[in-house]
Amino acid sequence: MIFENIKEESKQKIVTAALREFAENGYNRASTNSIVKRAGVGKGMLYYYFKNKYELYVYLITQSLGVIEEHVNKQINLDETDFFERYRQTVDIEMKVYMENADFFNFMSYVFVMENDHLPNDLSDSIEQLKTEGFGSLYKNIDLTKFRDDIDVEKALQLIQWALDGYQQQLIERLKGTDFSNFEFEVYQKEFMEYLNVLKTSFYH
Amino acid sequence: MIFENIKEESKQKIVTAALREFAENGYNRASTNSIVKRAGVGKGMLYYYFKNKYELYVYLITQSLGVIEEHVNKQINLDETDFFERYRQTVDIEMKVYMENADFFNFMSYVFVMENDHLPNDLSDSIEQLKTEGFGSLYKNIDLTKFRDDIDVEKALQLIQWALDGYQQQLIERLKGTDFSNFEFEVYQKEFMEYLNVLKTSFYH
DNA sequence: ATACTCATTGACTGAAATGGTCAATAACTT
DNA sequence: AAGTTATTGACCATTTCAGTCAATGAGTAT
After folding, report:
1. Which residue range forms the structural domain that includes residue B79?
2. What is the pLDDT of residues B124-138, one digit of tens each?
3. What is the ipTM of this complex?
4. In what residue span(s) does the HTH tetR-type domain sit (chains A, B) (predicted)?
5. Residues 8-67 of A, Cβ under 7 A from nucleic strand C
6. Does the reported pTM lie above 0.80?
7. Residue B96 belongs to what H/E stretch?
8. Is A202 in contact with B198 (Cβ distance < 8 A)?
9. For residue A104, what are the contacts with CB-CB under 8 A and spacing of at least 6?
10. Within a domain: residue A4?
11. Which residues pair with A147 in a beta bridge?
């Protein structure tokens, strides 16, 4: 059960099935028929609880972003002014949440990292907005004086962002399809730290 | 005319139309009906020159990779041992080719950068192979002693790769849909150099 | 028992789009 | 006139899709 406080059993089943279906196929290729088959309920139930496919998708995104945001906001330490340490903490928290549910992780990968097919309407925009909002806490109260004076800090931060995005994307690729049962969190943590240290050494004076 | 040496006029039309269709939609969403409509030829012509949709796609990829490879191989200077300068040269050459034809550029974006939908058979693998082969010349005869001794060079190179991939992806996003007519090559070149310099300053001793 | 409400079903709809075929024919060449 | 090559587009069979709705089951209140 990813999202609590859903009393209705069938709705719960649909939400769980939909999360997996969207995680595997993205919005456009995901099929409502497949969702209800997976959920083991009649087709009508989907349209009893949700107006249509689109609203179901929006519901999932909203809930998911809420879950992540809640965890990060609750656990992040804004007194830590070191950029890399802040980054490490953020990813740490997120990873712990994702590990609870691989479908959730893959769904978020679709929403965040992968191209959102051709999403209808303005959903694509609002995802982008929520994404950058989410990244906001990444830069709050960060000590930029630690960076070398002979480089353009803004460009450096951008490059670091891109590099770490690359690392995460590669991690997603590696983890795709696994159920996380044999995922060694400590091993990943160590590897991630090593990459962070390379960046730290290079970009700090 | 992107690929020369096609005498057959109709085949040429189909290839041009197909490049655009695939560039806009990727493999799965691209429609053969749409291609022939765009090409202004009868449906049968597509199946006169190509066995099926898949073979048409493979043909385009093969040709495209050939064009790029040819240009790079002909123009790259392997005596240049500086990694960043090598990278700059490579991207430079590629950009000049892409600027001749925006469809070609967008098609290659799909093949390389974006997720290849769920490509049939082993095509996805062979693209990956050609991609890494292509990157091969990026590391040939490179002077690694220029890198700082206090960092893991292999990890550093990987991070640089990810960062510059990020830059390129962002560039693709910015250029998407444009016809390149108002694309200021020198402006882009300058910007790219600035990012390269940040990396150079940070990772070289 | 009766009536009423909420939950649930799945066969069905109509539309769209798909890749691919093929008999017919036009356009050239010999 | 015969033969070859290029070209057409109506047509096919199939799939898939989001969404509907009359029917019914389950539970509760009267």
Report:
1. 61-203
2. 666 777 677 767 778
3. 0.83
4. 8-68
5. 8-10, 40-45, 48
6. yes
7. helix B83-100
8. no
9. A2, A19, A23, A64, A67, A97, A98
10. no
11. A204
